[in-house]
Design brief:
This protein has 246 residues and is an alpha/beta fold. Helix content is 36%, strand content 20%.
């Protein structure tokens, strides 16, 4: 599979890509765009909750290398995404103790790629991200993951809360990585079916999401710096799960 994110351009081509269930990362639209095809595309964008940006025509010219873009350019993910319900069911039927990773709007592609790489190395069954506000799976993500993105099931959901409810319905406990607790990571039983939630680089885990978790845990920080890079913290959580399970 090509590790470059595919670029398509033209209103009708993008409409057909959406209707064929292509995994679209983002659509760039020319400011002030109008017309029947645009309104048809706009309806599909809203229905499928695809991320968009309205940009000057000059940017579209660069993205499409001056081809006839008709005011619309889309970036398609180089991987296919998994259905969360099917992935949970598959994991349980394989008689493995589930270990999932939920990323609450991690936005940096390098952090995302590094997390994917660590997740693949630690036997994570799947990574769950939100459709909007999350880093895309693009060429930089693939490169940083050292190709692990091709081996790691990734699910996109409308809202992180939807994923939490699905996981909990399958008796999978949610462990939030947060400094807003007195419990250390070593107080958590990772031998049970769990999903670890990591928050965004700047805001952490959304408070409304944090309320739904079963456990909260933090890493001990013994220096003067008050936080770790999210990919490093994620690695520490995942390897504590590995330590307990082995």
């Amino acid at each position: 599979m090509n590790t470059d994110t595919t670029t398509i351009f033209g209103l009708r081509a993008i409409i057909e890509a959406i209707e064929s269930d292509s995994a679209i990362n983002k659509i760039y639209l020319q400011k002030g765009l109008r017309g029947d095809l645009f309104f048809q595309l706009d309806k599909l964008i809203k229905k499928n909750k695809i991320a968009i940006s309205f940009v000057p025509v000059e940017k579209l010219n660069r993205l499409s290398k001056n081809n006839n873009h008709q005011g619309a350019v889309a970036k398609i993910s180089p991987i296919a995404f998994y259905d969360l319900e099917n992935l949970i069911e598959k994991t349980i039927t394989e008689n493995t103790v589930p270990l999932f990773l939920v990323l609450d709007q991690i936005s940096d592609v390098r952090n995302f790629g590094a997390i994917i790489r660590t997740a693949e190395c630690t036997g994570v069954n799947g990574i769950i991200i939100q459709k909007n506000g999350s880093a895309p799976v693009n060429a930089e993500t693939i490169k940083t993951s050292a190709g692990a993105a091709f081996n790691m099931p990734i699910c996109k959901v409308d809202h992180i809360k939807d994923a939490i409810f699905q996981l909990q319905a399958a008796a999978i406990k949610l462990v939030a990585a947060t400094e807003k607790t007195d419990h250390l990571i070593y107080d958590i039983d990772f031998k049970q079916p769990v999903a670890i939630i990591m928050g965004s680089e700047h805001k952490g885990i959304n408070p409304s999401v944090l309320k739904l978790t079963d456990y909260k845990a933090k890493l001990p920080l013994l220096g003067k710096i008050e936080s770790l890079n999210v990919s490093v913290a994620c690695g520490a959580f995942l390897y504590e799960a590995v330590r307990q399970r082995t």
